[in-house]
Design goal:
- The complex is a heterodimer of chains A (about 325) and B (about 600).
- Helices cover about 65% and strands about 0% of the residues of chain A.
- By secondary structure, chain A is mainly alpha-helical.
- Chain A has one domain.
- Chain B has 25 helices and twelve strands.
- In chain B, about 50% of the residues are buried.
- The chains are: A mainly alpha (about 325), B alpha/beta (about 600).
- Chains A and B meet through helix 4, helix 9 and helix 11 of A and helix 5, helix 11 and helix 13 of B.
Chain lengths: ~325, ~600
Amino acid sequence: MSELAIVAESVLQALSAGLLIGCIYGLMCLGLSLIFGIMRVINFAQGEFLMLGMYFAFYAMAAFGALGILGPLVGPFVAALLAAPALFVFGYLLHLLLVRRVTGVRAVGTEGEGHYAQLILTLGISLIVANGSLVAFGSFPQVVKTPLSSTAWELGPLYGDFVLVFVNQARAWSSLVSIAAAIGLVLFMSRSALGKSLLAAADNPEAAIYMGIDVDRAHRIAFAIGTAVTAVAGGLVATYYPFQPYVGIEFVIIMYAGVVLGGIGSVSGAFLGGLSIGLVQQLSTLVLPIQLQNAAIFVMFLLVVMFRPHGLFGRSAERT
Amino acid sequence: MGDRQSLNRSLTAIGVFVVVYVLVVLLIDNSYYRLMLTLVPIWATLGLAWNLFSGYSGLVSFGHASFFGLGAYTATLLQIHFDVTFWFGIPCGMLVGGLAGLVIGWPTFRLQGVYFALAMLAYPLAFLYLFEWLGYQEVSLPMKRENAAYYMQFDDQRAYIALTLGLMTTAMLISLFVEHSRFGLSLVAIKQNELAAEGVGIDTKRWKLLAIVLSGTIAAAAGGLYAKVLLVVTPPTVFGMITSAQALIVTLFGGVGTFWGPVIGAGFLIPLAEILHGEFGHILPGIQGVTFGIAIVIVIMLAPEGVFWKVRDRFRLGEGKAEPAPGFTAAELAPPPDRAVTSGQTVLDVGGVSKRFGGLLALNQVTFQVKAGEILGIIGPNGAGKTTLFNVLNGYYPPSEGGVRFLEQDLLGLKPNRVCRLGIGRTFQIVRAFPRLNVLQNVVVGAFVRAENDRAARRMAEAAVARVGLGGSRLKQAGGLTTKELRLMELARAIAPRPTLLLLDEPLAGLGHEEVEELFPILQRLRAEGITIVIIEHTMQAMVRLVDRMVVLDHGMVIAQGAPAAVTRDPAVIEAYLGKKWAAHAQN
């Protein structure tokens, strides 16, 4: 096999992995974009929501296994989707009890529009949830078991007898579920009356009040949806990535990088942002040792916020 | 403010605190509690470092673990690889920490608010992966049998307590002196209103860099001692999120913006978390993190300023006594001799200035001159481009075309603080005060530009406050002033460094008729004392009585200039203000 074929094969391999993982990242970014991009709530605990989604899927799968209802093929994806209602309730209550005190109309006009308080409050929540999960779930790394994780489709040979690309089936199905969920969410937000009123309330709370929208409730629902969406993405990640209670911090940067890259305030942009981050992460493995792939994301995040604070796809919405 | 008295009081309090701490150490001989007494000052020091930067400047750093970890690893690796003692290794670590502050701060200060906080979070995490990749997952310090003290290794735990206590006390003293200097006041001004700080001549970037370098140095020292006390360093313990979080949490809990905050916070939270961990750690492994999380949630809900301020507000024993305002000589009021101007000389030369925002032409070929000793009015309807013009003159925006010369010096490309330094003072349409500082402190911040030292700055501020007639309200908090007092305070802040030229952006806005009458004589007196004034207004009436000359702007263009009487009869001006119909009326 020629040198070129080897290079082509590893590039294609990284590209396909990046696209698949990127779709899942896109979905988790979508969740954050509702909370941070549109409502402008700085949520530090978003990574922990993702982690809770992972554990939910894990335990739901264990329960299915015991009941023998769903097979190991469909089960993990159903479990991931079931994380949505559970974490919706969690996000709803969290907003009701804590987050609403430092966000929304109340935060307008306070120091930095309440961002300072939000950062610190959600840092506290993130510490409690992550360490509380350590108590509840233990520190042993887990993974949602499915035979799909170890099976792959073979594409190719694309060039003569060479250039085979392996597509991991767990990732492939996860990314398909992500795309479907993302499309569903975008349609819901842009078409349904509830979705539109949520967007309006989140975007400009003061104006929405005068349009007769119950802004507090709208914020709660939007926050809960953002939590649920990220948790579903967590359940999907869990099918191919071993996790423990402190896993959230690795993803929180990925999510912020994706949302900023996609342009703050743009829901579909956030998905594309997440997709780009996935591609960068996987392509970086071509030139960097694998332990540094997360470091590559952090560097990319820094470059994005410094040089493209309005995102690659976003328009310059505000003048600084 | 730099009151000697309160400085002395704080020094005494620190002294008493150290003595009490030492007594407690002498009373306890349980090694577990002694370890706790060693750790409290380390985390308090990290908190002090965080407070020195984030607490005073208001830029939230989620990344102080970077400096802590670099300090720990530098000293540790120097001993492991080169057999260098910690006595030398820790200072090396501090150097690395300070340097990291510079390297991290320089690019990251481009970011605002939340983006800054998030970016700071990324640095320690990147370090974490980097050090794991380099193969330093767990580095243990070997026991030294010979020359133990040379390697900073002691049998008596109390020696370590002495070291960490010494470091914490040093950090407290540094914080105290920063609080009482122009450094601290500049940082506080940046925290309250960065644009205004820049506008009164504070070089914001320089102070922020200085703060993060100093902060990084202190945090690195804490990290070095931490490595020595625990004898083992791993990337998650020194670069992990919980380390950055602890710096922030002990400070927020105890109180932001005071050196007592981190000490109170660490003194309470570290023992609490350690004891809970000791009691329940085997069944509840994450109990420490949960404790810190709950502590910070409670604080942000109930006392977002922290324990220190809450308690102090409760036991507040009346404000400081007002000292009599000092008197001033004429020489102290005039512009400094190096910038003296002769009457009639051109002070400001605006040549063909245009400014575009995307497709909008906000200023179009604006040309006019300002002569020494005059009061020039720039008037025009709302949206005529008046404030944009000031922002260009002032350095907030670069002009798209044309140039501005001030006393033969080109202002192109100068930042607002540089423009201010040259002798151009400015007030804002919406008053940009530092609300938590009192009137005098607000004005002192403005005086730093020209003052050789803090004492001179204070005297210049007193003079400026007296000149605008605010002497009686000198010690009131700016947050509680009336609109008129705020306007006067901002005026005092602008004249404190004794500028040659004063740019006033709608100083009459929001004032009643009588208040306007009170302001006029003050402005006329300032002019008599040698300050050239350019004033923006949109109401013609008031201006006609005040100014010597007028420049009328409409849609970004100069449509008329000259003496008020002539300008008000100019048909183009009447049309701009009242529309075509009235222009015809006025002609008849």
